[in-house]
Amino acid sequence: MLDRPEVPVADEPKTWRDAWFDRDLSWLEFNRRVLQQALDDRTPLLERVKFLAIFTSNLDEFFMKRLALLRTRKRAELSHSIGAPATELHLQALRQAVAEMYAQQGEAYDNAILPQLAENGIHLLQWEDLTDAQRTRAHEFFTRNVYPALTPLALDPGHPFPYMSNLSISLGFVLRVPDSEENLFARVKVPNILPQWIALEDEDKSKWFYLGLKDLIHHNAGTLFPGMNIVDSTSFRITRNAEVELDDDDDTESLRTVVAEELRQRKFQPVVRLEIESNPNPWVRGLLMRQFELTEEDVYELPSELDYSGLMPIANLDLKALRDEPWNPVIPNALLDDEADIFSVIKAGDLMVHHPYDSFDATVENFIRRAARDPKVVAIKMTVYRVGDDTPFVRSLIQAAESGKQVACLIELKARFDEERNLHWAKELEKIGAHVVYGVLGLKTHTKIALVVRKEADGLRCYAHIGTGNYHVKTARIYTDIGLFTCDPVICNDVVNLFHMLTGRSRSPSFDKLLVAPINMREKFLQMVQREIDNHQQGLPALIVAKFNAMEDPELCRAIVEASQAGVQVELIVRGFACLRPGVEGVTDNVRLRSIVGRFLEHSRIYYFANGAETPLDGEFYIGSADWMSRNLTKRVEAIVPIEARPLKERLWEILDICLKDRRQAWMMQPDGSYQMLMPSEDDPEVARLGTHQALMALTLHRAKDRLA
């Protein structure tokens, strides 16, 4: 297991630094929890396959985003220190953790998941396992569909070392001219435009047979190098750094050019990781290390597959018995009628939705869709961070602009890994005359807000949506997020001011109810934590419950430590990494920190402060886009809104209460930074045994049945 840092022994009084935990190690601990979903035999079989793929994708992102930065720090430390610097030890700890998880992933795949797939008629085969008839079909498929797409690239004085794209799987061949002992290298990329597992049809429709594309190419390589002797081959995969920093410009066209250039340069960034099959050809291994300027610490010999993300089509097979029970989001009561006017519903009282339990299409999409068609609507404004490919939101905005409505859309061009897609939609909106802007110079716009301005009998009225998640129809079905629809004039005026800041040159906007980063959010959070300390010291009820994705901001960590040391109970529900260790004696004794991982990705941000109230519903609740990270509070535009209507507070408290009772999907962070998976017992209440997601689905269905009764 990963070496854990010992709890520091320090002179009293202890400080927040005594409970600090490394961000990168904590992030890997999160991915360990993801991997556990694949290892857990309580998880349906095809969902286990899916989690193998998610684990791989998560780890890819970690290497792309963090490793180059850590290496830069290492070089800086080496140039100013003697002996093994802290970053060197840090990198060794990260490598140890990654190697452990690779071994667990391969062991689970080879010895548990593959045999169970076979027991259920799903056979992922190697060439040696094929029947003669299957080999004939495989060879025919290779000739028709694979061979034309391959490009063998040699390395010799007339052929430079071939360019290799990020996260691409390649076969490195050792070739020799007949009667020669000289090794020659050639690389063949495994095309990512083709399925990574080729279906081999069989008359028995109760069975499915697949052959890996890499294996198919390997065993038909003779057709690629006629007249040459193939001595050996080794499969490998490279990961490039994704962090490209170029100077921004306050000119719109220049910013677009900068982002396009970042995308171009990302393709040629240094290689930060080489994944290679176990027992590789040593000559190929050495050649790749020299070419990419890698050390042994950068090379990982994988015990099984190189890229499990290619298994997603297998995970998506329509075999209900091997998957989670399907979930169909429910339409909220107020919008059940197809003819329901969403603006009248919001006007009657704030509406809160919780996805994917509540329908995204019937609420958020409907809000923008109706606004685009409504002749009374005069303006629509939205922020876009990630919207996906087939987005109904952009189509609605285009329709609105073409009908003469004022449309303003802030598109964040530097949303990592979505830059190209966002550039595309920005151009499409500009074509039809929408006002497209790219935010405040030096800040990413991460807030999830939409504003509709409508001409009504008593004048213009604003309607706002403030959410915790992106306007993305696909992730809305698998991410848990919360959104508030309101026409509260104070909140809507704050949203108007926020859009003015984003689209214009307002330097000191004021906000009455919204918490907006980087303007007032950190200060407000710190004030509310201090208020809980003051209340506790005065004998008043004090409690902090916060649910979000990641915790790293030193100021808020310090504030939580001070609250704990003052005796305030703090419940943190943090899906991803957390840099504050709970239960450290004298520091975080009154802090508990849990993570919930399961079929949905926990993405909502909910903040609760008792504020001296005897009953929870009289406390303060907030939702919004920001985590407790320095980047969210300092380098991004974020918005958090108070939830004031009592029925909505009840629902938020219910969500938090279910999370805090969960013993099926919850993991508790230990004082050393590790996590312990909770296990339900027969004595636990049903909600604890079901887990957060199943409990909320059951509750949603129960309420839907009640309203139809």
TrEMBL record:
Segments forming domain Polyphosphate kinase C-terminal: 341-507, 514-680
Catalytic reaction equation(s): [phosphate](n) + ATP = [phosphate](n+1) + ADP
This protein's record includes keyword ATP-binding: yes
PTM statement from Swiss-Prot or TrEMBL: An intermediate of this reaction is the autophosphorylated ppk in which a phosphate is covalently linked to a histidine residue through a N-P bond.
Active site per database record: 446
Record-linked InterPro entries: PP_kinase, PP_kinase_C_1, PP_kinase_middle, PP_kinase_middle_dom_sf, PPK_C_dom2, PPK_N_dom, PPK_N_dom_sf
Domain Polyphosphate kinase middle: 134-313
EC number(s) reported in the record: 2.7.4.1
Required cofactor(s): Mg(2+)
Binding site for ATP: 58, 479, 575, 603
Pfam families recorded: PP_kinase (PF02503), PP_kinase_C (PF13090), PP_kinase_C_1 (PF17941), PP_kinase_N (PF13089)
Domain Polyphosphate kinase N-terminal, first and last residues per copy: 21-124
CDD domains: PLDc_PaPPK1_C1_like (cd09165), PLDc_PaPPK1_C2_like (cd09168)
Entry keyword set: ATP-binding, Kinase, Magnesium, Metal-binding, Nucleotide-binding, Phosphoprotein, Transferase
Binding site for Mg(2+): 386, 416
GO cellular component term, pick one: polyphosphate kinase complex
One GO MF term attached to the UniProt entry: metal ion binding
One of the protein's GO biological processes: polyphosphate biosynthetic process
Enzyme class: transferase
HAMAP family assigned: Polyphosphate_kinase
NCBIfam families (UniProt xref): poly_P_kin, PRK05443.1-1, PRK05443.1-2, PRK05443.2-2
Entry function: Catalyzes the reversible transfer of the terminal phosphate of ATP to form a long-chain polyphosphate (polyP).
Stated family: Belongs to the polyphosphate kinase 1 (PPK1) family.
Record protein name field: Polyphosphate kinase
Organism: Blastopirellula sediminis
